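Practice problem 4.
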């Protein structure tokens, strides 16, 4: 099975990873995993002030902060995923990546860093569910 893991470094990402690694009967290491993270773009004036190269470096550093602990955790469980990071609207890009990559399943936490804004489900989660045609497993 080809599985997309949407991560943002939040507590719900950690819960999702714990769920993934404790359900070997479904999510064993025989699956094809991709870790996917999205960085919210800097405001246009800030991007213009710092320049394209510095902004690009900032996005790469922020993505590394999110993915490094995820990759370390997954490696301890015998999972070596591909890693993809993008810059833009998280909900929209996650849904597009799931469909464009022809994934069988999208696995993500029910909330992210902005969990207080949407108490029932996170706003990114709501956007993903509205736009994604790939099955989504939310872990709360």
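Answer key:
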């Amino acid at each position: 099975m080809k599985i997309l893991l949407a991560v943002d470094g939040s507590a719900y990402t950690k819960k999702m990873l714990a769920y993934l690694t404790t359900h070997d009967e479904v999510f064993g290491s025989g699956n094809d995993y991709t870790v996917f993270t999205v960085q919210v773009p800097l405001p246009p004036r800030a991007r213009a002030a710092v320049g394209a190269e510095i902004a690009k470096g900032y996005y790469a550093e922020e993505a590394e902060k999110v993915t490094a602990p995820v990759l370390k955790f997954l490696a301890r469980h015998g999972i070596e995923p591909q890693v993809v990071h993008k810059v833009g609207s998280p909900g929209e890009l996650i849904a597009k990546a799931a469909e464009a990559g022809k994934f069988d399943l999208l696995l993500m936490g029910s909330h992210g860093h902005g969990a207080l804004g949407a108490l029932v489900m996170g706003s990114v989660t709501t956007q993903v569910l509205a736009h994604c045609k790939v099955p989504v497993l939310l872990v709360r």
